[in-house]
Specification:
With about 400 residues, this protein is of the alpha+beta class. It folds into 2 domains: about 250 residues, no CATH class; about 90 residues. Helices cover about 65% and strands about 15% of the residues. It has a 5-stranded antiparallel β-sheet. About 25% of the residues are buried.
Length: about 400
């Protein structure tokens, strides 16, 4: 071993500490910046949660539950920005040129970055995504519980009521003041396209009851004898009451269900094995396995999504290191455009794969093909620079 190589060997740990320190600094800044930006995109969800009558502690808890869910997006992007910025800075101040002159290869320079990103990817896959699934589930439970406990708040949310087939108008606020006048509620009449109308001169809340006075209910039902006219039904009442629990069941037609996004990895793998067993059982009995197979496909694509999302931390780190590095006096911006195009290609494929949950092979292809392209392009550029080829 020559003196130059020996000196380079003992210099590496110091350089690795320096690279990791600088990388983690930029990574932290990018991470918290993107975390704030991604949380700001969910302001509409926070406002909707507040409109359901949530208090400040419940709203803050709901916001905390959103943080792990956006981590899975912030981590890969932060990895790309940190590695791109670090190696661009090292290239501009000729630090990489000096290291190359000292006999240190590009592979040795980027090794600490790759090891750190692999470690972070494993932590993301086995821990962060599980925490994200749990927090997403808890946020849904919190919102569902609030809807069930406070149906009056939902009645003041016109968008949510329209989604459920209701349209409510009143003077006053049942949620804030406990009373309202000129109450009008239009709703779908069963499964038909007909509209039923509920009118009340006065409405007030007493404990767990909603009491109305001077009520009218207008509805129709089909006449079996003729296809031209329906019967009109008008009911009037001096006073009547509705239990808030019954009102909650009426306006909360949506039930809380556990989706694949809400499952930890161990539960997701157990579900996949169970679905595979059921598919084999259906095949053995000669029964239709289409529905079970569709459920199995969704579980498999969800596992593939999590693997691809974790692997993207490594792919983006390698991409940033390759396209952030340049040698010579002229530093072209073209390489940054290439990095942006490759990143856009990954995001487009990732979003396309999310829309193909029922088709395993196309989804898996779209999840993992961009990694092959990104890593291949990064390695090709690093190899050419290692050979001393001047590329833009």
């Amino acid at each position: 071993m020559t003196f130059t190589k020996l000196r380079a060997f003992f210099t590496l740990p110091t350089l690795w500490r320096y690279f990791l320190t600088q990388y983690i600094k930029v990574f932290s800044l990018s991470f918290f910046g993107f975390l704030a930006i991604l949380l700001s995109t969910r302001l509409e969800d926070f406002a909707h949660f507040l409109s359901l009558g949530a208090d400040i502690p419940a709203t803050l808890l709901y916001m905390v539950y959103q943080i792990p869910y956006v981590l899975q997006i912030a981590l890969p992007i932060s990895s790309l920005i940190a590695s791109l910025y670090l190696f661009q800075k090292l290239s501009q101040n000729s630090a990489l040129t000096s290291l190359r002159a000292a006999g240190i290869s590009l592979l040795e320079i980027i090794t600490p970055l790759i090891l750190f990103s692999i470690t972070l990817a494993l932590i993301t896959f086995y821990l962060v995504l599980d925490i994200s699934a749990i927090s997403h589930k808890r946020a849904k439970e919190l919102e569902f519980q609030l809807r069930s406990m406070n149906p009056l708040a939902l009645m003041h949310n016109s968008k949510a009521m329209e989604e459920k087939g209701f349209n409510v108008d009143m003077k006053g606020s049942l949620q804030r003041d406990g009373k309202a006048t000129d109450f009008i509620m239009a709703m779908r009449n069963g499964e038909s396209d007909k509209i039923a109308l509920f009118l009340a001169k006065n409405m007030k809340v007493e404990g767990t009851r909603l009491i109305g006075s001077n009520l009218s209910f207008i509805s129709t039902f089909e006449n079996e004898e003729t296809n031209h006219f329906d019967h009109l039904v008008i009911e009037n009442s001096k006073e009547n009451l509705i239990q808030l629990q019954d009102l909650s069941k009426a306006v909360n037609t949506k039930r809380l269900r556990l989706s694949n996004d809400d499952m930890k990895l161990a539960l997701l793998v157990a579900k996949k094995n169970d679905m595979q067993t059921k598919v084999e059982e259906k095949r053995f009995l000669g029964q239709s396995k289409r529905y079970v197979n569709r459920l199995l496909c969704r579980v498999q694509t969800e596992i593939s999504r999590r693997i691809s999302l974790s692997l993207s931390i490594v792919s983006f780190a390698l991409l940033g290191a390759a396209f952030g590095t340049s040698f010579g006096r002229i530093h072209s911006r073209r390489r940054l455009i290439y990095a942006l195009l490759l990143t856009s290609f990954f995001l487009l494929c990732f979003l396309g794969a999310k829309g193909m949950q029922g088709a395993v092979m196309p989804a898996v292809l779209l999840y993992f093909l961009p990694h092959i392209v990104l890593i291949g392009a990064a390695i090709l550029r690093l190899v050419r620079m290692q050979k001393g080829l001047q590329i833009s």
